[in-house]
Amino acid sequence: MSGFTVNAQQIAQFQDEGFLIVRQIFRPSEMAALIAYARGDESMLGESYVRNDGQGGETRLAVRNDLADDSLYTAVVRSQRIAGTMAALLGDEVYHYHHKMTLKQPKTGGAWEWHQDYGYWYHNGCLYPDMGSCMLAVDKATQANGCLQVLRGSHKLGRVDHVKVGEQTGAEPARVEAAIARHKLVYCEMEPGDAVFFHSNLLHRSDQNTSELPRWSLICCYNTRHNDPIVTGGRHPNYSPLEIWPDEHVTEVIERQAAVD
């Protein structure tokens, strides 16, 4: 779906439900290139670290705050169809907060407890929850391999206190239990190239990957300009303008990378 532009109905849906799934926002050829790029990215694998779920499962993460000019990840993060869409959904100029690849391997990929991203980002000096993420399915995401789960409309709860839940930090269990009773649970099953945009206060989680298939996802995280953190030198960057690239630039980077390889 090169050239995707979010419409008023979709923006209203995001504001009401806290998330928006866009099918095939990247073409199969683009995703095939991204999969090959990520699988062969030894530097990314070397930077990655493991998060255990306390139940024998583990998920590997690679988090980056910087955007390398020659990286295919950068082309995705800067693309109009991702960054431009997020700006429209959040109603302000956005900047790159960070991006990360989550690597849920077959049979061993761990679970994530219920949490809000703003439950963590609040402590980075962000005054408002005017932030969001886009999870791009690199591999097919199903219930069997631990796809993202969300509670529809739970972003309207506001920020929930986060506490230790097993070996992870998650949303306060009593609040989560009450939210589950009031908000519909949605499994965000996606094909490669599908994306889900979600608000930083949306409660979400995922199960272990019990399947024979991997589930890798590229998550692009954005903050709004007016929400520049009140502290500097935090875990993720303060505001700096994000140059948004035309969608065609993704293809240009893929072709340039192929020529190098």
From TrEMBL:
Pfam families, alphabetized: PhyH
GO molecular function, one term: iron ion binding
Entries under InterPro entries matching the protein: Phytyl_CoA_dOase-like
Entry keywords, A to Z: Dioxygenase, Oxidoreductase
Domain of life of the organism encoding this protein: Bacteria
Gene3D superfamilies per the UniProt record, alphabetical: q2cbj1_9rhob like domain
SUPFAM superfamilies reported for this sequence: Clavaminate synthase-like (SSF51197)
Protein's recorded name: Phytanoyl-CoA dioxygenase family protein
